[in-house]
Design brief:
With about 375 residues, the protein is an alpha/beta fold. It contains twelve helices and 14 strands. The strands form four sheets. Strands 8-5-2-1-14-13-10-9 form an eight-stranded parallel beta sheet. A two-stranded antiparallel sheet has the order 3-4.
Length: about 375
Amino acid sequence: MNITALRALIVGIHGTVLTEEERCVLQHPKIHGVILFTRNYENPWQLRRLCQSIHELRTGSKFQENNKDDDDDDDDVSTKQQDASSSTAQDNDERCSSSSGRHPTDDDDVLQIYVDQEGGRVQRFRGDGFTTLPATGSMATNQEALQWGHIMATELLRCGVDWSLAPVCDLDRGSLVLGGGNNGRSFSADPETVVERATAFMEGMALAGMRTGILKHFPGHGSVMPDTHHQIAVDDRTLSELEQSDLRPFIHFLSSSASSNDKRTNDDSNDNHDNHDNPAEPPHVSLGVMVAHVRYPQVDAAPASLSKVWITDYLRGQLGFRAPIYTDDLGMKAVNETSTPAELVQQAFDAGANYALLCNNWQAVLDTLQSLG
C-alpha cells in the first residue's frame, strides 16, 4: 500500500447504537473509521454490540483471531497488573468474553474503531467492565507503564475496539490541555523518560495484541500553554530549539520507525523486527502519529496539522516516516475559526495527512463527504 496516497476520514457518531443514517454514511469509501467517546458507552455488552455493528458494515471483509499466547504474556506482565486489577480484570473478561480479542486484519476494508483511552482524565470508557487507569504522569517506572498499557489494550480489544490513540509523547512543561505532575497526560518533562515510558506502554499494548502505537501530539504540545480545543496556540521557537526539547521523543520513535519499516521492506521474514533489546522498537509494534494544531511560525505559518512543511517535508522527508499520519480533531477552535470543516480536511490532505478527524459534528461529516465527492 502506498501510504502517502491514503486519504480518509475518522468520524464520531451520536450515541450508543448506530442510526440508519450513520449505517449508510459509514459505508462511504472515504471513511476509514469511527472514534468513540463517553457518549457512545453504557456497558461492555452494549459496546461490544456497537463495535460489531460497525465492523459488519463493510461486507466481505476478512477477520482474524488475535492468537496471542496468554501464558507467555503472563511471564512479561508482573504482579503489579495482578495486584492493581485482578478482580476487575476477571469481571471484565466475563463481560467482554464474546469478543475473544477479535479485530480486523491490516489489509482489509473493515471500518477501524478508535478511542482515547490514555488513563487519568482522558479515559472514555469507565465503570462497569473497565479498570480505572491512572494518569500517565503517575507511572513512575517502565514496568508500571508496560502493565497499564497491557490492561488498557486488553480491555479494549475484548470489547471490539481496535485502537487507542496513545501514548502521549508530549513533555510535561506547562500545557493546559495536558495538565502536569502525577495527574497529567505526559509521562515526564524529561525527553528520555518520555521515550522509556512510552516504549514500555506500547510494549504492553503489543503484548495484549494491539499492534500500533499512535503517538501524539507531534511536533509537541507540552510547552505551549493554550488549549487548542478552545483557542489558537503558538510556539515561537525555532526548529533547532524544538529539536532539542519537545521534538526529541518524536524524532526518536518516528525516525526509528522509518528505519524499521525500511528493514521490513527488505526482509520478508520480519525476524529483525522482533528485537526486545532495542528500546525504540517494541515487539510487533508499528507506529502512527497524530499532529497537533499548534502553530510554529518560525517553521511554517500554518498549524502543524495543516502544514506541508511539517507533514510532507519534515515527517515524510527529513525523518523518513512511512506510517499513517492523523490530524487532531478538526473541530477544535485552533483551526476552525476561518475555514469550513470540508476546507480543513482538504488542507490536511494537501499537507500530506492520511486520516482527518471529525469527532463531534455530524453535519460536518456529511458536508465534507459531499465536497470530497
